[in-house]
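idk why but the lab printer keeps eating my pages so im just putting this in chat instead. protein + guanosine-5'-monophosphate:
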Amino acid sequence: MTDCVFCAIVDDEIPSHTVYEDDAVLAFLDANPLAPGHTLVVPKAHHERLNDLPADRASRVFAAVHALVPAVEEAVDADATTVGFNNGTAAGQEVPHVHAHVVPRFDGDGGGPIHAAMGTRPDLSDEELADVAASIGERASVDR
Ligand code: 5GP
Ligand code: ZN
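predcted complex ->
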């Protein structure tokens, strides 16, 4: 048996409530949901972080997320969804197998935006913003 819990779910060694499956992607309900319908979308292949996920597999994960968002919202009559990845342990990732969270949201549910996940915010000058934008831009190449 694999020691990755999501690989074990993909391999049917651990049961889960599957909501969608194709050759590259599995989506199933979170065992400790933040809301009814909280769904996890994973590549079937084991990759720890988005940074490690090949572009073609990333596209397949995003295509599934895109299709599942309206399905999840309609199934539980949600007003919206929060969609995100905890990408790395410093960001709160506990299961080291890439997964998107699709969390149904309801008007007045008491939750916050993704911004609420952060602590204090930096106060960056225009120059610092320009530097960091250039630095990211130099490194970003999108495989299509
Ligand atoms: P993370 O913090 O890594 O982004 O989130 C991991 C998520 O996986 C958590 O929301 C947790 O409830 C869920 N989870 C952990 N173990 C299992 C499991 O065995 N089955 C299912 N369905 N979800 C799990
Ligand atoms: Zn895995």
